[in-house]
Design a protein that fits this description.
Aminopeptidase; binds coenzyme A
């Protein structure tokens, strides 16, 4: 899927989503520490290009969250299966900008666009158990724990069905998957 079918902008109010572009890489690289997947440090221009390549590969749907034209966050969909399912990532960079309704507004803008254009039937959100704010946020957005998948992942990790059956609930540092059916 190409970025071309993704609208350039979603929303018209103070909170808007603007399609990610290569020009955003400088500010995103600063805001998302350790974004460069290689772990090595490169000259700035190379880092931006590598990060752009990484975003293009991983996030077919990728938006900057703008508040009054200032970049405050990122929202995107990875593991994108057109017309079926995708996994959402959302971050408001600055702690001081959180708890102002920006995350909720950004998610609703993207969700409405996805529904309007029937891009996906299911959205997943992967969250660490140790991130109660994230868990609460996605619950507020209508997501619920995808118990079936947790169970399957545990079976995969152990490679044995019996262990998966015994271990029903994730530990605090484990990742859980939440799901929203559109
Ligand atoms: C999770 C995250 C995206 C939420 O974004 P956010 O902009 O803070 O979300 P909102 O402001 O819409 O909602 C968060 C809380 O603020 C409250 N809130 C919303 N508007 C508010 C306002 N004007 N005044 C006071 N509180 C407000 C909401 O009711 C909600 O409260 P609750 O947690 O008690 O239910 C943000 O905390 C974040 O970037 N975290 C780090 C990354 C992360 O964990 N991402 C999720 C996993 S992908």
């Amino acid at each position: 899927m190409s970025f071309a079918i993704i609208p350039r902008q979603i929303g018209r109010g103070p909170i808007r989503l603007r399609r990610l572009s290569i020009a955003d890489m400088a500010s995103l690289t600063d805001k998302l520490d350790g974004l460069s997947m290689s772990g090595k440090s490169y000259p700035a221009l190379i880092s931006y290009l590598l990060n752009w390549y990484w975003f293009k590969r991983n996030y077919p749907v990728a938006y900057c969250i703008l508040l009054n034209d200032t970049l405050v966050g990122f929202i995107g969909i990875s593991n994108f299966i057109p017309k079926e399912a995708g996994e959402i990532s959302l971050i408001i960079f600055d702690e001081k900008m959180r708890h102002k309704g920006i995350g909720t507004a950004a998610f609703n803008l993207l969700k409405e666009d996805i529904q309007r254009r029937r891009l996906l039937k299911t959205i997943y959100a992967r969250i660490e158990q140790g991130n109660p704010r994230g868990v609460k946020f996605w619950r507020n957005m209508g997501f619920f724990p995808d118990q079936g998948v947790q169970y399957l992942e545990q079976i995969d990790k152990k490679g044995r069905h019996q262990d998966g059956l015994q271990k029903k609930y994730p530990k605090p540092n484990e990742t859980v998957r939440f799901v929203l059916r559109l």
